[in-house]
Design goal:
The chain is built from seven helices and seven strands; from the N terminus they run αβββββββαααααα. The strands form three sheets. Strands 2-1-6 form a three-stranded antiparallel β-sheet, with no helix packed on it. Helix 4 runs antiparallel to helix 5. The longest helix has 17 residues. The N and C termini lie far apart (about 60 Å).
């Protein structure tokens, strides 16, 4: 793992005493002529029970920053400096766990805007998703078979349209509003099922497959969202307008 990924440090540089993330973050800031975030009195900072420090910043441009671990050989800002953004969580100040209490450093309780120089460093070290999102993947074959068995190809287009936003979430590793997207899809399917326009078993099977493909390993969360969305949708039948198929 590099001390500062993407920034070569020659063998002649004396790294004696460089022992933790406080040090590597200070070195990065010094190289950019900036103050270390650990010393930024304008934003919320929280001492952790282990002796670390959480520095909070607010993203102001809606960019979906990615998380990273400072010991990762892949995406990382600096050695032993972890980044928590989309898809991650952080302990709120004042929280007490078995290890101790997360204590604010001073009287500042609001995260400041993410400094431009730090945003540039996060961008440089791969903390943003790819600049383009590939086209949504096709409906999984098993889902297609379920739809065909339930009512023929005339229903396939309807289900594919509902599943498309869920499948598109699979092109983004984190974020993308997956929970809301899945909930809307489940609600819509519930309405179509209630109106007799889709077979319930086949529609639920197809939705679960699409969601699992988009977010592998999150089956429990997926099941909870689908169950809630379907229940709400079943109370609001979505009848076809115009000529019925």
């Amino acid at each position: 793992m590099a001390i500062l990924p993407g920034i070569p440090i020659g063998d002649h540089i004396d790294l004696t005493g460089l022992a933790n993330g406080f040090h590597t973050l200070a070195v990065l800031a010094a190289l950019r002529g900036q103050q270390s975030p650990a010393d930024d009195t304008s934003t919320l900072r929280v001492h952790t029970p282990s002796g670390g420090l959480h520095v909070w910043y607010r993203a102001t441009d809606n960019r979906p920053w990615k998380s990273s671990a400072g010991s990762s050989p892949g995406r990382a800002l600096a050695w032993q400096v972890d980044i928590r953004a989309h898809g991650s969580y952080i302990i709120a100040p004042g929280t007490t766990t078995q290890q101790g209490t997360y204590t604010p450093v001073d009287d500042v309780r609001e995260p400041a805007a993410l400094p431009l120089w730090l945003a540039q460093e996060l961008d440089r070290t791969g903390h943003l998703p790819a600049p383009h999102i590939p086209a949504p993947r096709p409906v999984p074959p098993r889902a297609q078979q379920a739809v065909l068995a339930a009512g023929g190809r005339r229903w396939e287009r309807t289900l594919a349209a509902v599943l498309a936003p869920v499948e598109a979430c699979g092109q983004v590793a984190e974020g993308a509003g997956f929970s809301d997207t899945l909930n809307r899809a489940a609600y819509t399917l519930g309405g179509l099922i209630a109106a007799g326009r889709l077979d319930r078993e086949a529609a639920e099977q197809a939705l679960r497959q699409a969601a699992a493909a988009a977010r592998p390993g999150q089956e429990l969360r997926i099941e909870q969202i689908i169950r809630s969305g379907l229940a709400a949708g079943l109370d609001k039948p979505l009848h076809a307008t115009g000529r019925r198929p």
